[in-house]
Inverse folding.
């Protein structure tokens, strides 16, 4: 009976951890997003970085983060964090225009944020 309970508990933990891990967006770097934007287009991603520029009003706006591999603008309706904040924005990657081998206009539409 005890062995059966241990197996059931193990199965429940395995299923639970699988569900939790698949629900989390993949954390990446700005450099990876810029290098292969088609791979991440319209996908949820998580980034880590420091706010270097920001502007907004009435809880909406945009801020730019730097993660030492590059910079990206984050569009937000969650309020703009202050300059110098270390944050982890989560959201959908928006790919801009590619011209001359360079990407212009990449951004992240924020859906969640952690500090």
């Amino acid at each position: 009976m005890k062995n059966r309970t241990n197996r059931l508990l193990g199965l429940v933990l395995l299923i639970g951890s699988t569900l939790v891990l698949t629900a989390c967006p993949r954390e990446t770097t700005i450099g990876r997003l810029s290098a292969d934007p088609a791979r991440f287009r319209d996908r949820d991603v998580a980034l880590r970085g420091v706010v270097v520029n920001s502007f907004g009003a009435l809880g909406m706006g945009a801020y730019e983060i730097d993660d030492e591999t590059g910079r990206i603008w984050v569009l937000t309706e969650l309020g703009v964090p202050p300059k110098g904040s270390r944050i982890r924005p989560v959201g959908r990657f928006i790919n801009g225009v590619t011209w001359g081998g360079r990407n212009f206009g990449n951004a992240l539409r924020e859906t969640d944020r952690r500090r």
Notes: Strands lie at 26-27, 44-46, 49-57, 60-66, 71-76, 86-94, 97-99, 102-104, 107-114.
